[in-house]
Design a protein that fits this description.
This protein has 447 residues and is an alpha/beta fold. Helices cover 24% and strands 17% of the residues. Strand 5 (90-91) and strand 6 form a beta hairpin. Keywords: Hydrolase, Protease, Serine protease.
Length: 447
């Protein structure tokens, strides 16, 4: 059995050059004949090396992840094993990590929408936000998904949304350029961001628009997301370089995807597993970007007890996994515009080994909005709740800089001011801390 993996290798010239080329958006192939590889690992030369600093320890910074400074690099490769239980933990003394399949969180097709995007805007007090100048102006929102179709958005919105093609990114294997992808899940997410933040600038990062070698037709693999976050880090490092001109006030990163079942990952107990391992390279790089000032949001998932997606395989506990359960991100459950939790919204606590009190808050989903999946089809799943919340964060960032209020502080404002709908104050497994209320969060923060 040929199994895709991520390996951590020490710095060497071919890997440094590959990472520099990728950061500069140049074609990057790792020369096999010039790269020292551990035995048993077959390198994928088409995957650019990703700087990971010291490799498997927390505390890395933007500076330690610069290609010329990084002590280690993540590469994608393959190993042979008879069955998953025989996957080695290392190769030549270098640790191996899972590169599992990832997929968008969309479910419950066929059930009609509840309300419209205008109702969501009303519930979020968007007119009041706009009157206070909280509309996303000057804020970049990266849509980490299947890609954006700008023509469809223009038809639905009646105006062309703000879009930055130059700072968008297209992975190897994608068949369309920035803003020109087929109308799909990513277009839905982009539309939903703009409900609360109509003046935000969209960045297109189609991590789910390609299938990585050795992956599955159901989605991409985590290595593509790792590469995309490395690109965001390179972009944000330049934006915040000393003496550099800030093009954007803030960066918000929307992730409406994840893993539906542990069988997609390495077996339990493997030190390179992803879903319950805060030291997986992807989770570490998410933490670096968050500490650098980016607001990162993840969907909770669609394995709720009442209406779980079939890919959950009837598993409805500990279903918030991997980076979706990181303390560095805001994790979203879903409710409809009547404030009723949708039955597919994953419930807490998270998988053992990760931050337990997830989801953080709830946002609106299952409404008539983008119609990306056809006329009358709802924007659904925690996939829609996540960008609705990302738009709220972008709106708040119009007047709240990440220097004055780092992501964890802003998320604390959001959870503290969330509207209670079940029980008293505090966290519960269905709604987290309550339904997101950007107006209350803004007033609490003084904007």
């Amino acid at each position: 059995m040929r199994i895709p993996v991520l390996a951590i290798l020490p710095a060497q010239e071919p890997l440094v050059e590959s990472a520099i080329a990728a950061a500069d958006r140049r074609a990057s192939q790792i020369p096999l004949d010039a790269t020292t590889m551990p035995p048993g690992l077959t390198l994928d030369p088409t995957f650019p090396a990703v700087p990971v600093g010291k490799g498997v320890t927390a505390g890395a910074t933007l500076e330690t992840l610069a290609p010329a400074q990084s002590q280690n690099f993540a590469v994608r490769g393959f190993i042979d094993a008879e069955d998953p239980g025989e996957i080695p933990t290392e190769s030549g003394g270098r640790p191996l990590f899972a590169d599992p399949v990832i997929a968008p969180f969309l479910t419950c097709g066929g059930t009609p929408p509840v309300g419209k995007a205008a109702d969501v805007a009303t519930k979020l007090n968007v007119p009041t936000l706009a009157a206070r100048g909280l509309d996303g102006d000057g804020v970049a929102v990266a849509i980490m998904d299947t890609g954006i179709n700008l023509a469809h958005l223009q038809r639905k919105l009646g105006a062309f949304p703000r879009f930055d093609a130059g700072n968008s990114w297209t992975p190897a294997g994608a068949t369309s350029g920035p803003g020109k992808h087929p109308v799909d899940h990513g277009t839905m997410c982009a539309y939903d961001v703009l409900i609360a933040a109509p003046k935000a600038t969209l960045l297109d990062y189609p991590i789910l628009a390609t299938t990585a070698p050795g992956g599955s037709v159901t989605g991409s693999t985590l290595s593509v997301a790792l590469q995309a976050f490395a690109q965001l880090i390179a972009f944000w490092a330049v934006a915040f370089a000393p003496g550099g001109a800030l093009r954007y006030k803030a960066l918000v990163v929307n992730n409406s995807w994840g893993i539906f079942h542990p069988s997609w990952d390495f077996p339990p107990g493997h030190p390179g597993r992803y879903i319950d391992n805060p030291n997986h390279p992807f989770s570490l790089i998410v933490g670096v970007l968050a500490r650098a000032g980016a607001d990162i949001l993840f969907a909770a998932g669609n394995c709720g007890g009442e209406c779980a997606d079939g890919r959950c395989q009837a598993r409805t506990t500990e279903t918030i996994m991997g980076a979706n359960a990181s303390p560095d991100v805001l994790t979203l459950a879903g409710c409809d515009v009547t404030d009723t939790r949708v039955g597919y919204s994953s419930q807490g606590p998270s998988i053992a080994g990760m931050f337990q009190q997830k989801p953080d808050v709830t946002a609106y989903t299952h409404f008539l909005g983008s119609e990306a999946f056809g006329q009358g089809a709802p924007d659904s799943g925690t996939s829609a709740a996540c960008p609705v919340a990302a738009g709220c964060v972008a709106a708040l960032r119009t007047r709240l800089s990440s220097q004055a209020m780092p992501p964890r502080n802003l998320f604390a404002q959001i959870t503290t001011t969330a509207r209670q709908v079940q029980g008293g104050p505090g966290w519960n497994r269905n709604y987290g801390h309550g339904i997101i209320d950007p107006d209350a969060a803004g007033q609490s923060a003084g904007v």
